[in-house]
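From the shared-data thread, chain only:
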Amino acid sequence: MIWVILTVVSVAIWDLADMLSKKGTEPEDPFSHIRFVICTGVAMLVFTPFFRAFSESGASLPQLLAQYPVFLLITLAYVVSLLLSFFSFRHLEASVASPLCNTSAAMILLMLLAFYLFSGRRRGVLELLTPLNVLASLLVCGGVIAVGIVRSAEEEQLQERRELVQYGAAAILFPLMSAFFDALESVGDSLMVDAEAGAGIGSIDYMRLWAATYLLICIPLWIYLLVKEKKAYQPFSKKEGLKLASGLAEVTAYTLYILALEREPFFVSFLSSTYCVFSILFCRVFLKEKLSKGQYLCIAVIIAGLALFGIAEGLAA
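Structure, as tokens:
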């Protein structure tokens, strides 16, 4: 049951990061999405002492990177997903972009099923896929995808919004590509912390690797801004406060997510895609974006699916 609570709390904080991203986005700034990624890297510095103090292995970062070199690709997929996600928020309303980004729910589930079934864990997967878990998965996955479909069905209204003028319907592709790279990264997360079928790295050591590789990727992004703008980017300036706050929320959510993933490698990465539920509600309350009855119905379906996961976990215990 702990993993369910950790997952729900993490997705709620991720929604807060989404809201801050939308509030801090500057449509006239072509590099706003890059600044968000860099600010998230800066936020990681706050967590670095904690990660080092509670390391499971006590190994140095060079030792961990030498042992798990594939992690750089996982982090790269995460950064690409973030870049595309932040870019999406510049051209779509958050209540549209967030659900589309979270079509990764179906991608994650299919990728994980394929890996576990073809890697000799067929029996373990069948034990996990109880009738309640299957029903819960269908409700959550269907609800997440339906949110995007319901909102996208309002195409005529969307075309009238300024956010879609520059790219037209092609703007929808950005969150969908973000979903694909997010799914790749999420599957990588699951396999890295899975002690049975994956690498079995400790959750805190995993976060140390994640922070280190993420910061390595942020360095060339900072240099890119330096070359393009002819001046050094200052993430600690007053106007970047919302970006830094979004970064802190992102890192906090990801830390809780990895702690949950260590306890349940199969379902947590899939359930993390449900953060569009809180995101849509936050957009309604704080950003005053309008929601349709169909969206509220989809939210109710997703919440019902989450409740079934909790019930199934309780029965299994």
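The two ends are 9 Å apart (CA to CA).
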